[in-house]
Each structure stands twice: as structure tokens, then as C-alpha cells.
Amino acid sequence: MKAREVNFDGLVGLTHHYAGLSFGNEASTKHRFQVSNPKLAAKQGLQKMKALADAGFPQAVIPPQERPNVEVLRQLGFSGSDEQVVEKAGTQVPHLLSAASSASSMWVANAATVAPSADTLDGKVHLTVANLNNKFHRATEAVTTERVLRAIFSDAERFSVHEALPQVAMFGDEGAANHNRLGGNYGDPATQLFIYGRDESGHHAPVRYPARQTLAASQAVARLNQVNPGQVVFAQQNPQVIDQGVFHNDVIAVSNRQVLFCHEQAFAQQDKLLANLAERVPGFTPIQVPTHAVSVQDAVETYLFNSQLLSREDGSMMLVLPQESHNHQGVWRYLSELVKADNPISELKVFDLRESMANGGGPACLRLRVVLTQAEMQAVNPAVMMNDALFNTLNNWVDRYYRDQLTQADLVDPQLLREGREALDALTTILQLGSVYPFQR
């Protein structure tokens, strides 16, 4: 059955700021306490969505979450009116208000793991919400993420949205950032490759930085998503690259259809994994970038692999890259040679996503990939699909509500809380989502 991949991009939230909350994410740590520009961040994301939609790639929007998260601050012992809760947290423990105000839900590659209907035992599209329990500022996202996904994929005959796994370390789940799908046409059954950083045995674990995705979580997600067991492969991320800042697999590898574009140090026992995939995936085309051409450090700094690999109708592929990859002489030299070589990648498309990149997320972090048949696409909430009208509406919405600079000290401003709620109330009407936020319920 003919199917297409739809990229659902996260819209950057109104409290986008640089607080260095993500230990193990070197870009996040490096830019701590710098002044952010939430308005520019949102517009950069919208520009990418619109450009790809105009180029013929189906594109949709996932809204930001309510921040600051007053509910979690109350759980931590701050009391009074909502404004007083925010003021007390910001005055007494600023880093807690910062965590409760994080706009990290914009990186929707961590929102869920998706199984297309071609791969599932019941023929439905399955989405399992990620629990993100390795980081406090992200572990609070799951409840709203589930509500948003249910509002977008509301047809129970075609879609099944599962709640997040238990919030314990054993089931640490970071979503699609550690998941790949390899095969032929999108509508055909494919091999699902789940990448984990650690298992409970503790063998070959990173030393410096945490391994966020567990084998137990990946196995549970595969079960929940009803992926045909014969189509599943589990593989371990190289713990040595995690210690160099590769906090998710999508910082060191990206796949699309038959192509796996990765660094030669991406996986533990990489040769064995590639041989297994070659047996399973017809026409399997691994593109391994050698260390002498691009070091792991250069890959982390430029987010070369946190790119989007997109298929054109003729089977050729376009690599969507951040400006940082273009600016790095060695990385750009490698890419310029890559598109001349004998492989499906024939075009490079560069976007300026500086605001997202400085907080530790590139083009691939900003999108959740969902393969849909034509009938399934028609069952998706149409109000979230990117087109000229939605692009203009969302840009006007950003102009009305977003600030053009924000620091951690600004988060205590009660007006920011009110602005955010007014904005999200308007956004749920634009995207026809219903009451998905705590303040609306």
C-alpha cells in the first residue's frame, strides 16, 4: 500500500531559554545563561517546516507545552496563587523554576516512538509516548504529550496512542531519537532498529555521561507498538561516543528507507550489526563516515548526523542540515564529496536553526517521523498540517505573543505566565486540539 512519511515538527515554546539543563548534551551546557530569542527560535522552526512543505514533503506541527509547569512546582512544595508559586520558586530555587520552564518539548523526536501500520500485528499506527525520565525538566512532558497526540491522532480505528512507560530508571525511554526504520517503500513492512545505551547488566556502559535509553524500555516499546517480532533488531550505542556527547543515537546516525547514514563509531559491534541489517533489508545501503574525515567531536559540534534524510518521488534523497555543518570546513568538504558519490543522497539543504542548536537540538530533534497511508493521513487532525494559511497564522501568533529575548532571571515574571497561557489558549483553537493543557482543564 502506498504510504508517505510525514514530519511532525515541534513548535518552540514561549519560555525557550538557555539554562544548561541537559547533562551529557555539550551544546546545552556550553550556552548556559546566554540570552535566548524565543521569537526567532519559533520562526526558524516555522521556516524549516514551510520550506519542506513547499518542496513536497508532508509537514505538520506539534504545539509546545504549558510552561512554567506550575503543577510540578506545587508538587515540590511551593504554594499560593500560580503567580506566587512561580515567584517563590524563582526566588528560592531558581534552577527548579528554570527546569519547570524548559521549552525542551520542541524536540519532538523525543515525544514518542512510532510504528507504521505496515509493521504492526493489528494493522494500526502505534505511538508510545516517551517517559524521558533521565532529566527532570523533560520527565514532566509525558502527560501533555499523550493528550496532544490523542488530539492529533484521534481516530481509534487507525491509531493507537500508548501512555509512557513507568517512570523508573530501568525503563528510561527517549523516544524516536533512538529508533530507526529500514526498508524499501514506506508502505512495505520494514525492519525496526531500536538503539539502547545500557541494559540492566551494566556491561559496557559509558563512564562520563549517562546512557539514557535502556534495552528494557526499547523491548517494552516494541511490544506496546505491536511490532511484528520478526521485524525488530536491538543494538547498543557505542558507550565511548556517549561519553563524547552523543546523548541520543540521532546525534550519530540517521536512516531513511534502505540507507543508514552513520559514523563508523556509532554502534557497539558495528560490523556485526551492519551484516545483520544487510540480510534483512533489501538493497541495504550503509554510508559510514570515517573518523579521519569527520571526528566524533566534529559530528557533535556540527550535528552532522542530526539531519533529516528525506526521499523524493524519484527515490533520490535530500539531507537537511544545520548551518553549523555548512560552516565547518572539514564537514562540508566531506558532504560535498558525498553528494557526488554513488549513493542515493543527491542534495544538501541547509537551515539556520541557531536558537535550537545552541540549546542542543538540530533539525532531526525537531521532528517526529510518522509513516502514513493516504487513508491514515486523511484521518489525522487536518488543522495541524502545514500550508500557506497555517504558516501565516502561526507567524502572526508568534509575533503577537513571543518575546525577542529571555534570560533565566525573566522566568519569575508573572506576566510571562499569563502571556504563555493566553498564547496556548489561542493556539489550541488554531490547531483544533481541544483542552490539552492543565490550565484549560
From TrEMBL:
<keyword id="KW-0056">Arginine metabolism</keyword>
<comment type="function">
    <text>Catalyzes the hydrolysis of N(2)-succinylarginine into N(2)-succinylornithine, ammonia and CO(2).</text>
</comment>
<feature type="binding site">
    <location>
        <position position="359"/>
    </location>
    <ligand>
        <name>substrate</name>
    </ligand>
</feature>
<feature type="binding site">
    <location>
        <begin position="137"/>
        <end position="138"/>
    </location>
    <ligand>
        <name>substrate</name>
    </ligand>
</feature>
<dbReference type="GO" id="GO:0009015">
    <property type="term" value="F:N-succinylarginine dihydrolase activity"/>
</dbReference>
<feature type="binding site">
    <location>
        <position position="212"/>
    </location>
    <ligand>
        <name>substrate</name>
    </ligand>
</feature>
<feature type="binding site">
    <location>
        <position position="250"/>
    </location>
    <ligand>
        <name>substrate</name>
    </ligand>
</feature>
<dbReference type="InterPro" id="IPR037031">
    <property type="entry name" value="AstB_sf"/>
</dbReference>
<feature type="binding site">
    <location>
        <position position="110"/>
    </location>
    <ligand>
        <name>substrate</name>
    </ligand>
</feature>
<feature type="active site" description="Nucleophile">
    <location>
        <position position="365"/>
    </location>
</feature>
<comment type="subunit">
    <text>Homodimer.</text>
</comment>
<feature type="active site">
    <location>
        <position position="248"/>
    </location>
</feature>
<comment type="similarity">
    <text>Belongs to the succinylarginine dihydrolase family.</text>
</comment>
<keyword id="KW-0378">Hydrolase</keyword>
<feature type="binding site">
    <location>
        <begin position="19"/>
        <end position="28"/>
    </location>
    <ligand>
        <name>substrate</name>
    </ligand>
</feature>
<comment type="pathway">
    <text>Amino-acid degradation; L-arginine degradation via AST pathway; L-glutamate and succinate from L-arginine: step 2/5.</text>
</comment>
<dbReference type="Pfam" id="PF04996">
    <property type="entry name" value="AstB"/>
</dbReference>
<feature type="active site">
    <location>
        <position position="174"/>
    </location>
</feature>
<dbReference type="InterPro" id="IPR007079">
    <property type="entry name" value="SuccinylArg_d-Hdrlase_AstB"/>
</dbReference>
<protein>
    <recommendedName>
        <fullName>N-succinylarginine dihydrolase</fullName>
        <ecNumber>3.5.3.23</ecNumber>
    </recommendedName>
</protein>
